[in-house]
Amino acid sequence: MLKPGIVNMADPEYKVELRDESYCLWVSEEYETIMNLNDTNTTYTLSKSLTKTINELLN
Questions:
Q1: For every residue of the chain, which 3-state class applies, written as one string?
Q2: Residue 51 CB: number of other CB atoms within 10 A?
Q3: What is the pLDDT of residues 32-53, one digit of tens each?
Q4: pTM above 0.70?
Q5: Closest CA to 27 of 17, 37, 19, 16
Q6: What does the alpha-carbon distance between residue 27 and residue 3 come to, in Å, rounded to a whole number?
Q7: Which residues of 23-47 are buried (b: 16+ CB within 10 A; e: fewer)?
């Protein structure tokens, strides 16, 4: 889900690099938020199923 606007976020738990892109990832039990470092004015909330998958990979 797209969350437009200027964001003021705490430091991310993870920094992910995929090819030429870098992302910040904030993790919680219920949802995760991701932001592309080339577009710091937009964050995305990941789906519950994707959050579950990522949490399993991180643990």
A1: CEEECCCCCCCCCEEEEECCEEEEEEECCCCEEEEECCCCCEEEECCHHHHHHHHHHHC
A2: 18
A3: 899 999 988 888 999 988 888 8
A4: yes
A5: 16
A6: 16
A7: bbbbbeeeebbbbeeeeeeebeebe
